[in-house]
Amino acid sequence: MTAPAAQPGVTGGNPVIRRIVLLALTVLLLFLLVRAFPVIDDIISVIVISLVISYAMRPLMTYLERRGINRVVTILILFVLFAAVITLAIAYLVPRLIEQLSAIGSTLNQIDVRQIRDSSLEWIEQYFPALAESLREETGEAAMIADRARGIVTSVIQQSANVLAGLVNFFSLLSIMPILIFFMLKDGRLFTRSVVARVPNRFFEMTMSLLYKVNRTIGDYIVSVVISSLFVGATTWLGLSIIGVRYSLALAVVGGLFNVIPFFGPLLTIVVTSLLIILTEDPFVLPLVWAVIVLFLIQQVESIVVKPMLLSHSMSIHPAVVIIAVLIGGRIAGPIGMFIAVPVYSIIHMVIVDLYQHLKDYRII
Fold first, then answer.
1. Is the peptide bond before 283 cis (omega within 30 degrees of 0)?
2. Helices and strands (DSSP H and E) totals, the chain
3. Distance of CA 268 to the CA centre of its chain
């Protein structure tokens, strides 16, 4: 007597339904992660920073491994080099940076808002008399803005205890970063193999191709951002120092940090630099013009020369899509979301296109 045939969905289950359920669970997990981000944002920040550092170290690790050096030894060498760079930066740059930040704080505390308003109106009246006349009729609004600014400063001071507590918690999490980086470098390929081992043969080729493209996209993007941000920071420091702008180191650090945010970062750098020059330089017109020209030239060189040399064509995305992705990333996860918005969009687009092409080639759809 022959055994009855197994009914679909009873023993093995319908594979299409199983994949739909898996996709739905993945979407649900992403949704819950987004909703929970305000609670675990510091943990995600540490993971993202560890990922950035590990990907930045990976090219040098690959080079040393090809020279016959053991992976663990290679990672330890990279840790020593990284610690040496951080130590030199702390010894040389941090004292000067603290000095400039303290000077900026002292200068801002001595600023007379009315004097700045009057000098600005005098300059505007010299070149744009009609505009100056209309501005003089709005002095009450300027006073209101100054009061609001004082209120903001007071609020920031009142919240300083909460900020300090958050920083303590964040720096305690930073202590686990070396462990995360070590295992990301050591076992990254092992993780890839474990993922591939669980993929059915039918999807093996597509999975290998996707993992390679995703890994290359993330690596290219992180390396390009790190190098281009260092380039922007160094050239901003040099350029602003040459034209005699005070606090050039502090502005260079701001420029390098903001540069990790696509599209909006350079604009924020120009805005912050312009405001600081207006508030601290007298007269400010000529230094402001030269500083804007220098920053514009640096951003053009970085966008036209540096980034294309570092970033593969797989990350070529329309500027409008970049803006939308960065806005959505900032809305969901703040600065971290703005930083990862472009590679996340690129990976999602890549997965969808490759998956559709694979299903079409195998006549599944």
1. yes
2. 13, 0
3. 13
CA angle 209, 211, 217 (to 5 degrees): 100
What are phi and psi for residue 259, nearest 5 degrees?
A: -65, -20
Report the distance separating Cα 330 and Cα 346, nearest Å.
16
State the pTM of this model. Answer: 0.68
Residue 276's nearest CA partner among 144, 60, 149, 105 is 105
Q: Are 250 and 330 in contact (CB under 8 A)?
A: no
* 149 residue type, one letter: A
Indicate the helix (H) or strand (E) that contains 136: helix 129-136
Two tokens at 309? 């040399």
24 Cβ neighbours under 8 A, 6+ residues apart: none
Conformation bin of residue 13: beta by default, left when phi > 0, alpha when psi is -120 to 50 = left
pLDDT in tens, 79-88: 999 889 888 8
293 three-class SS: helix
Q: How do residues 174-188 score in pLDDT, each as one tens digit?
A: 678 888 888 888 887
Nearest partner of 200 among 328, 63, 18, judged by Cα: 18
Q: Closest Cα partner for 290 from 251, 243, 257?
A: 243
